[in-house]
Specification:
This protein is an alpha/beta fold. It is built from 32 helices and 25 strands. An 8-stranded parallel sheet has the order 1-8-7-6-5-4-3-2. Helix 11 crosses helix 12. The termini are far apart.
Length: about 775
């Protein structure tokens, strides 16, 4: 029986923590990596596995959390040997236990931020995960678990690496904050839709916090997910002695509340022990098993925002399409991304829920141009995208790097077209638009439209694609030429919804071609289609008439209760085609994260303004504005970093023009990830943000010993040090460094941060300041240096 067959019948109980047990080991205390202990102390690792199996676990994780080519840095013991021995240790424990159990290969994060927030490309992340997967499948494992991921994009790279090199089951868990978003701003709906689209076998949450705090998060995941649900909380928060504040009995009581949500897979993360697992096993043995319930929600997402096709009418912005747009055509041919980004931002401001992206031009490399433009647009916008192309290679290139779950526009009923594109939808995930066209041409009658739509649905089901991921376009015909067929389009919307349970979309403007007063025809046609059940349309979001018709229809259909949105969003008359704003100010460049014409704009400002005035009133002011938005969760880390990078470009121009103005800063800060810890994402984020507030940052990197910090304090006359630790096992090293700084450099202050820390814990290890995120680090620096 494999693991998925087992899940058809009963709960899976994973093991608990590995690191918090290993921290008692002397070699570990000396800085030996936990993965290296697979080789140096195989009996120790095997015994930990065996103890969890004896406590009731029926799945154990290999001791390979950090075993990847970007993080594992023990040159004496090759990665390949570590992976082989880790799997052997786990398999030996299962054999010795003589129980039916499964061995899960554990894959943790790479330890670097992916583009656009960091420097690691999606392709390089995929390759790093592929190295691990190809090595792991040489040996006897039952499944892969990708865990403690804070970036949905990184999770996608890992899933593709696993699925393209093995056929083993894949479980994925992300780590969230108290606002139900990850470090990179991924929300629950985006996670669920994206991972389910990638055909992950189980999804969920691990680490993050204790079981009490996970309840609402897990409920939200279950509310949207049809997949097996996996939950592995910490044993609360770490205490100064290395233990955690929730013991096994309290952990079980909290877990009972969690289990009121429909969970099939569970275990423990940081701080959990054999006793925690034993009590959960005893409880599960007397509890009935429930499988997941299917959710029929049509969801399209970016990495940070989900759009659900429900009662609200979905507006798909149409203007990123070079047909009849010479300026856009020129921008595409010249790789002028800023033109497209401004157009995308404008449509987002106009209320587009989704943006259609079409770059089809003759004699171009459409696959490369579409891929690059989607990457650029996604680095600035949270709005989900619709990939619009007739080229299967271009669609696959875009799907592969897309961050989230997009719409694919489109697939028709021709067998050749379905054969080429449906496998891509099945592999990468996505919602697709089905066009009522087949080998007989465009379906014009109601009967033919239903026949083609049914054919598309039936063919998609062969690939495991559910109806919820299909939106049918019954096709807008031109009233001036095919007047008798227009009504069939309206009728098809109603029948497709009522009889086949399908969502619908139309491109509206075709109906009025060749007729006067086209906006009136378009708006009236929309109103008829909306009454028939139209869910979405590809439109010009600047259209006054259409936006008003949408607002009015929501009132008349009792969707906009008390006409609240209608009265709050009256649309003023404006031109149909938006004129993009070219005279951006320095503040606007930073707030929107743009680097277009930076040097020209800054030099022009410097003609009439003092550079200090620009720094204080434009750069710092704009960064403060963005920071406030970040604090309110109105934007997230990728946007924050984009703004910081824009500010850096502006600052560079000022330094070039007025080097004496910006070279006098003595506000230097050391940043370091402490000895034994090879995670530096948080530190790197803080570095970027602090530098763009004008501080001089001396980054000592990761796995940094006290001696290196002390030497730098003396050499650079440092007064503020920032220390980072992600693992509970390295907080001891952080405390040791702080104690030595106190003893030898009493005037030096220390700020600390990291996933395992809170303010109380930071004070217990005698830190001066605790920073929950990069912006709090900026606040500390400002207060410290203004004393």
């Amino acid at each position: 029986m494999n693991v998925l067959e087992y899940l058809e019948e009963d709960y899976l109980l994973f093991d608990g923590a590995m690191g918090s047990i290993l921290q008692q080991d002397e070699l570990f205390k000396q800085g030996v990596l936990p993965e290296t202990l697979n080789i140096l102390k195989p009996e120790l690792i095997k015994d930990i596995h065996l103890n969890y199996l004896n406590a009731g676990s029926n799945v154990i994780l290999t001791n390979t959390f950090g075993a990847n080519p970007l993080k594992y840095n023990d040159k004496e013991y090759p990665l390949e040997k570590v992976i082989k021995q880790a799997i052997q240790n786990g398999r030996d424990a299962i054999v010795e236990s003589n129980k039916q159990s499964f061995l899960a290969y554990d894959i943790g994060p790479l330890g670097q931020l992916l583009e656009p927030s960091g420097t690691l490309s999606f392709e390089d992340a995929y390759e790093a995960f592929s190295v691990v997967v190809k090595e792991a499948i040489k040996y006897d494992i039952d499944l892969f678990v990708v865990e403690t991921i804070a970036d949905l994009y990184e999770a996608k790279a890992a899933v593709l690496a696993i699925k393209e090199h093995s056929d083993l089951p894949v479980f994925v868990t992300l780590t969230f904050d108290n606002e139900q978003t990850t470090l990179l701003g991924n929300d629950v709906i985006s996670m669920v839709a994206t991972l389910e689209g990638l055909r992950v076998d189980a999804i969920g949450v691990n680490c993050s916090f204790g079981p009490k705090e996970m309840v609402e998060l897990v409920k939200e995941i279950e509310r949207n997910s049809s997949t097996y649900l996996m939950v592995q909380p910490n044993a609360g928060m770490p205490l100064i002695d290395g233990t955690y504040d929730i013991d096994a009995k309290e952990f079980l009581e909290c877990f009972k509340v969690l289990l009121e949500t429909n969970i099939q897979i569970m275990g423990g993360c940081c701080g959990t022990t054999y006793e925690h697992i034993k009590l959960i096993r005893n409880y599960l043995d007397n509890r009935p098993y429930l499988k997941p319930t299917k959710k029929n929600r049509t969801i399209v997402t970016s990495s940070q925002k989900g759009v659900v096709f429900d009662k609200e009418f979905i507006k798909i912005g149409e203007r990123i399409n070079p047909t009849g747009k010479p300026l856009l055509k020129e921008a595409l041919l010249n790789n002028n991304y800023s033109f497209l980004i401004k157009e995308a931002l404008k449509q987002e401001e106009e209320g587009a829920h989704i943006l259609d992206i079409n770059v089809g031009l003759p004699k171009i490399d459409e696959a490369t141009i579409l891929k690059n433009n989607i990457k650029e647009i996604q680095s600035y916008l949270r709005t989900p995208l619709q990939i619009d192309s007739a080229n299967p290679k271009a669609i696959e290139a875009a799907l592969r790097i897309y961050n989230g779950k997009p719409i694919i526009n489109s697939i028709n009923g021709k067998q050749e077209n379905m054969d080429a594109l449906l496998p891509l939808v099945a592999k990468y995930g996505g919602v697709f638009i089905g066009l009522c066209i087949d080998e007989n041409g465009l379906a014009t009658t109601l009967e033919d439209k239903i026949k083609v739509a049914s054919k598309i649905v039936e063919e998609a089901s062969k690939y495991g694609i559910d109806k919820k991921d299909i939106i049918i376009d019954s096709l807008t015909l031109t009233a001036s030429a095919q007047q008798k067929d227009v009504k069939a389009t309206i009728d098809a919307i109603r029948v497709l919804k009522e009889e086949l349970g399908l969502k619908s979309v139309l491109g509206l403007s075709n109906v009025s071609f060749g007729l006067p007063n086209r906006s009136l025809i378009n708006a009236t046609f929309f109103s008829m289609a909306r009454y028939a059940g139209l869910d979405s349309a590809i439109i010009n979001t600047a259209s006054n008439e259409l936006n008003n018709a949408i607002l009015a229809s929501d009132v008349l259909l009792n969707i906009d209760k008390d006409a609240t949105k209608y009265m709050a969003n009256e649309v003023e008359d404006k031109k149909e085609e938006v004129i993009l704003k070219d005279n951006l100010t320095i503040k606007e460049l930073i707030i929107q994260g743009l680097n277009e014409n930076t040097e020209i704009i800054v030099k022009k400002e410097l003609e009439n303004r003092d550079p200090i005035d620009i720094i204080e009133n434009d750069i710092v002011s704009a960064l403060d504005f963005v920071g406030n938005k970040f604090e309110k969760k109105e934007l997230f880390l990728p946007q924050l970093i984009k703004s910081a990078q824009a500010a850096s470009s502006i600052f560079d121009v000022i330094k070039k023009e007025y080097p004496q103005t910006t070279s006098q800063s003595q506000d230097k800060i050391i940043l370091a990830t402490v000895k034994g810890d090879v995670h530096d994402i948080g530190k790197n984020i803080l570095k970027v943000i602090l530098e763009n507030y004008g501080y001089v940052i001396i980054d000592l990197g990761k796995d940094v010993e006290y001696e290196n910090i002390a030497t730098t304090i003396e050499k650079e006359n440092i007064k503020l040090v920032g220390l980072s630790a992600l693992m509970t096992t390295t907080v001891v090293s952080m405390e040791d460094i702080i104690n030595k700084i106190r003893l030898n450099y009493p005037d030096v202050k220390v700020m600390v941060g990291g996933a395992v820390l809170n303010k109380e814990y930071a004070m217990k290890i005698d830190a001066d300041y605790y920073c929950k995120d990069a912006l709090e680090g900026v606040d500390v620096a400002r207060k410290f240096f203004s004393r």
